[in-house]
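Fill-in record for Phytanoyl-CoA dioxygenase (PhyH).
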Amino acid sequence: MTNNYLQNFLTISKSTLFFNLRKFKRRKNFNAKKTDEIKKHLNNLRAHGYSIVENFLSKEECASMIKSIDHAFEVYPEATWTGLKSADRRIFGAEHLGGLFNEFFKNDFMHQVGSQYFRGLLGNLQTLAGRIDAVEGNIGSGEGWHRDGNNFQFKSLVYLSDANPENGPFQLIRNSHRLSQILKDSYVLNLQNPLGTRFTDGQINTLLANDPDRLITLSAPAGTMVLVDVSAIHRGSPVEVGRRYAMFNYYYPSYDLTGRLEKFLPRLTPEMVIANI
């Protein structure tokens, strides 16, 4: 156990060091806007790994976007990603749907928050629009507990439908984005691959056994936005009733965007949209 912990400590520390050195050499400066609102969300992100923006969208805007998502699934089947049991359906590249989706993609506020949290310029790779249904045996959006990355990953999430405990609210494990906690959790789980990004329900139960309060469930009404560091362990919880609609922006360091779109296939392209006009 001790040898494994020391090995994991070295592996995780080395990964963090390389990431920070690359960031130091390649990050780009940007014009940071200083407002009380941005400061509040930065403080929340640094303290908790997430921050909530209430009433980001109106009920009417959410309803309109839900209709557009359902329509996109019908019109662009070749651009629809489908998960296990066909419960989780996604449109990567949803910004090309235009309207509110494109406004969300270009939103400067969340770009400012993310870039200031990173302390360097971020770029928004894409917008995801998704729906997950209460299919028997579904394991939730994201298909289980995971990290999006081991060192840094920032997303903005907007619930387009009410996210109640029964229909798949976003969940995360408190402090699991912090290096000190990552090392502790690696020890508790005796991980063979400390840089692995997928976790079983059994492993999460082990983490929660001594501290159940680490489980954070973000139930919220439609129109709520969550700004979140998804290097934390997280998931969309399994949907038990109805369905849940949401959209996400995927932010990466500006120097680390090249080649990433190819990892999100199938995806909607401008050519598909033009061909359907």
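KEY FINDING: The first strand starts at residue 50 and ends at 53.
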